[in-house]
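Quick one, C-alpha cells below:
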C-alpha cells in the first residue's frame, strides 16, 4: 500500500490487482486511509487520483481482462498465488514494458504455480529480489516446532498461538500458511519423501553458474512416475530430484522443460524405453 501511494504522489500510475473484488477493497481502504484526504478516491471507477497527476487503478483479476487498456509505471498483485497466471503474463507484465515499470508480487504460496516460478527466477535476475517471510520464525525438527526468530516476522503474534496452530493443523498447511513454503501440488508428486532424497535441500542456482549442468530423465509409462535428476557435472552434486505422475504428457513436457531451463541444463539423458521416441523428439525440439 505504501509503495503504491508513494508512487502516485510522485505522479506515477500504479495498478493494484487481487484475485477478487473483496480483496481489492482491502487495498482500496488502506490506501484511502494512508492518503489522508489528499487524493480523490472514485468508487465508481475504482481509481484514486492525486494532485500530482498520479493515480492508483484498482482491479479485480478474477477476469484478467479487467486490467487491460492501461499503461502503468508499476503494479502490485496481492495474493498472487491465487491469481491466474494469464493476468500476469498476458496483461500486467506487458503493460510495464513501455515504462520499464516494476512490480511487487505478494501473497501466500499456493503450490508451485507461476508465483513460485517468478520467485525462483528472481534469484537469477539482477533487477529482481525476493523475500520469504514466515508469520513467526520457527522450524520443524522431527515432530517438534522450534522457535527461530526472523527479522521480518510479525511481532504482534504470540508464540503460543503458532504452537497451537502447529498442533492442530496438517503439517503441509502449516508449512504453507505459516512458514510461507512453496509445496508441491497434491496429487502431482510424492509427498514427505525429503529424507529419501540425495538432492541438496535448498540448492542455490547462482552457486553453479559456469558449471556444466546435466540431467537424467525417466519418463513414466502407465502407472509409475516420471523422474528427473539434475546434477552438477563439475562437483558431482545432485541439485534437484523431482518425481510426478497423474499428469498428461503435455503438462509433463512443460514441467520438464521448466526444470531444465531453471537449472540451465546442457545435456539431458532420456530413457525412452516404453514411451516411444515421439516424446523424446518433442523434448529435443522444445529444449533446442
Amino acid at each position: 500500500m505504501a509503495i503504491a501511494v508513494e508512487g502516485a504522489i510522485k505522479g506515477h500510475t500504479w495498478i493494484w490487482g487481487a484475485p477478487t473484488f473483496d480483496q481489492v477493497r482491502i487495498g482500496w481502504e488502506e490506501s484511502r486511509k494512508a492518503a489522508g484526504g489528499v487524493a480523490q478516491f472514485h468508487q465508481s471507477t475504482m481509481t484514486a487520483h492525486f494532485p500530482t497527476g498520479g493515480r492508483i487503478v484498482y482491479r479485480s483479476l478474477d477476469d484478467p481482462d479487467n486490467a487491460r487498456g492501461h499503461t502503468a509505471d508499476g503494479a502490485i498483485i496481492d495474493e498472487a498465488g491465487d491469481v491466474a497466471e494469464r493476468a500476469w503474463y498476458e496483461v500486467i507484465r506487458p503493460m510495464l514494458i513501455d515504462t520499464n515499470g516494476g512490480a511487487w508480487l505478494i501473497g501466500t504460496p499456493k503450490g508451485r504455480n507461476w508465483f513460485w516460478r517468478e520467485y525462483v527466477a528472481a534469484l537469477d535476475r539482477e533487477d529482481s529480489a525476493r523475500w520469504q517471510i514466515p508469520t513467526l520464525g520457527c522450524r520443524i525438527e522431527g515432530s517438534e516446532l522450534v522457535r527461530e526468530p526472523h527479522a521480518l516476522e510479525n511481532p504482534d503474534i504470540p508464540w503460543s498461538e503458532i504452537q497451537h496452530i502447529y498442533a492442530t493443523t496438517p503439517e503441509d498447511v502449516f508449512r504453507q500458511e505459516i512458514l510461507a513454503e512453496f509445496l508441491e501440488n497434491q496429487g502431482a508428486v510424492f509427498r514427505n519423501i525429503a529424507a529419501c532424497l540425495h538432492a541438496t535441500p535448498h540448492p542455490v542456482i547462482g552457486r553453479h553458474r559456469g558449471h556444466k549442468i546435466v540431467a537424467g530423465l525417466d519418463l513414466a509409462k502407465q502407472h509409475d512416475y516420471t523422474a528427473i535428476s539434475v546434477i552438477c557435472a563439475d562437483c558431482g552434486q545432485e541439485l534437484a530430484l523431482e518425481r510426478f505422475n497423474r499428469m498428461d504428457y503435455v503438462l509433463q513436457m512443460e514441467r520438464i522443460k521448466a526444470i531444465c531451463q531453471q537449472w540451465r541444463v546442457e545435456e539431458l539423458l532420456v530413457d525412452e524405453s516404453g514411451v516411444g521416441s515421439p516424446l523424446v523428439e518433442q523434448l529435443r525440439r522444445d529444449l533446442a
